[in-house]
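The authors assume throughout that readers already know how a fold can be written as discrete tokens. Each protein is reduced to its one-letter sequence and a matching series of backbone shape codes. I therefore recommend that a typical entry be quoted early in the introduction. For illustration, here is how one protein appears when written out as sequence plus structure tokens:
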Amino acid sequence: MDQETRRPKSAPDEVWVEVKDAYLGGASAAECCRRFGVGKSALRARAAREGWRRCDQIWVPPAPLEPWDEGLKLEQEVGGDLDQLDFAELAHVAMRRMMRAVLHGDAAAVMRWHRVRGIMDAMQAEVDAAMEADEAAVFARENQKQRAAWARKVAEDALDNDGPWPPDPPRFVPDHPDHPDNPDTVFESGRARPGTAETGTDLTPAPVLVDP
């Protein structure tokens, strides 16, 4: 078998026309090779020989997002006002696009959206930490104001009070009629009042008998 027989055949000219259009349209060399079945070295050689220059092409915007894309829906919900979005919502969009890239077998897109999601989660954590610090500072200031107001009231009441300060607290008198500390308690005859010698809990010292 001679060398001419072993040499792979080049793609037809009509295929190279499609390769050129795709390459100049923004597709990468690897994508063109995968789509049209040409070799990367052959593509670069032909591009150099024929002067394929992407800078000569008119810039066109990238393909629009699909109508059901999560990011597009979110942008429509806020009317384009990005200040209404938080980073947690953007992290959700990145996660959904990462999952879709897995289904499409696009490993590069998977890694790209995975990094984007990590960045969004980190930024949301910073925002949450800042908000918690602000809330703690507000609480501390309000607590300090309340304590200062209470101290002023105590000082004012001390100046207006004629008796000792603080005044003696009122004696607690239970409302239950059977409680021994209630002044209206009536005990049955023959029953000892709690706290007497009969109950064994008499708190009054016994009288001391002295011999005459």
